[in-house]
Amino acid sequence: MIREILSGNSGVDPSKLAGAAGLPNDPASLQAMMMQFQRAMQQSSDGEINWNVSTEQAVEIGRKDAVSITPAERSQLDQAFHVAELWLAEVTSFASLTSSPRALSRAEWSKATMPLWTQLAEPVATNISNALTTVLKEQAPEQLQDMIGQATRMIKSIGGTMFAMQLGQVVGQLSTEVVSGGDVGIPLLNDEAALIPQNVAAFGEGLDIPDDQVQLYLAVRELAHARLFRHARWLRLHVISSITAFAQGIRIDTDAIEELASGFDPSNTEELREAMTNGSLIPPKTDEQLAALERLETTLALIEGWVDVVTAEATSRLPKADAVAETVRRRRATGGPAEQAFSTLVGLELRPRRLREAAAMWRTVTEAVGSAARDSLWQHPDLVPTSADIDDPAALVARLEAAARGETPEPDEFDMALEDLLRTEHEANSGETESDGTDTPPDEPPAVP
Fold first, then answer.
1. pLDDT at residue 31 above 80?
2. Rounded to whole angstroms, how far apart are CA atoms 413 and 395?
3. pLDDT tens-digit profile of 345-404?
4. Where are the domains of the chain?
5. What does each C-alpha distance from 314 to 11, 82, 84, 100 come to in angstroms?
6. Coiled coil where (predicted)?
């Protein structure tokens, strides 16, 4: 079927297939899509995904309706970042960045963030390709088994190319919605801070808030986010590992694929679109996935909650800070179309559900022990608050206050159980030593050599 489509001898309308996959179906885009598929078939020997396709797609979308960054805009953002640095120094102990913040175009943002997007998406793309080739191997007639090797490599290349194009569409659309490098909560830029002036201007439209105040508030948020990840070096790897652990657990329901294929009408691609977007091809989450998702949601909530609290403190002298903050909260709660598309594509929502509770916990900790003790919790993964701490901030504050007084915290159930286990093992080992027959009885004098 794929060969017939690419040769033009099939009755399948390529524009309908593009629409089912969420890709644009204008003539230029369709021609580019067919060229990518042909290239994938010619290079199907290794089955590797060409992620350059994603970058090309995203950059192309970012360049549409792009507005050049003027020298005046760069100067305004530089000034906003400078003031933001001074204000953050008053409310957090985290050091400044070693690199200067940047003003990025949409296309530049797409190109700079794509390495991480592909790292997150690759496990999903690989699992999808494996599921499709498994069905092919199981269902092919015996007389065609010799051809399966070549066919599966072709399917992997074609499927990988399709997935890469879809990811490029998602990231390209995200570049028209986000205002900064850390806007989606995950560390897309490594030790860098950046704002997208065109999107910052769109963010402030209709708010009746001076542009300089919007820019300053968003600059503080972006710098706070970047400072946190620079200080807590382990945090970026922790977030990426949690996302990867979740994505690697995604499996495709091959029975559902077979059922779909048995009655699939190539001329009616709405059925395919529905199957791809409603999640029916993906089995329920495993226990491992649920655990990884819970860890990730807690971490993202702690990050975003800390950024919210620190930003509120740093912008307290900004007249319209509360109005900008409320706009950020509403925008974050709803998410944009591109975030929803990423959720469909990778099966992962980027917005944490417990953000308000996490922010309330950080405020409680700050009021009780100060910003320095609060920030010290990011020094090591073992010190970071847990989901239980979000539920009960008072217990966390009590531990921090006891530590400040030099008091040893009361052992919890785990500590006591571990102590009992070690004591039992020690007593058992001691008993073996006393009864092994090598010791001299206490009532007899030592033997004379």
1. no
2. 15
3. 666 676 667 889 999 999 999 999 999 999 999 999 999 999 999 999 999 999 999 888
4. 2-346, 360-425
5. 62, 13, 8, 19
6. none
pLDDT at 367: 95
Distance CA 16, CA 37 (A): 16
Query: Do the beta carbons of residue 377 and residue 389 sit within 8 Å?
Result: no
Alpha-carbon distance values, 94 to 79, 137, 300, 363, 374 (Å): 20, 55, 19, 17, 11
Q: Which residue has the higher pLDDT, 271 or 49?
A: 49
Contact (CB, 8 A) for 358 and 307: no
Nearby residues of 277 by Cβ (< 8 Å), 6 or more positions away: 344
Interstrand relation of 194-195 and 102-103 (parallel, antiparallel or unpaired): parallel
Instruction: Determine the pLDDT at residue 273.
Output: 65
What is the rounded distance in angstroms from the CA atom of residue 288 to the CA atom of residue 187?
Answer: 23
Neighbours of 52 (CB within 10 A): 12
Q: Has residue 444 got a pLDDT over 60?
A: no
pTM over 0.90: no
- Rounded alpha-carbon distances, angstroms, from residue 386 to 108, 110, 348, 377, 389: 36, 33, 21, 11, 5
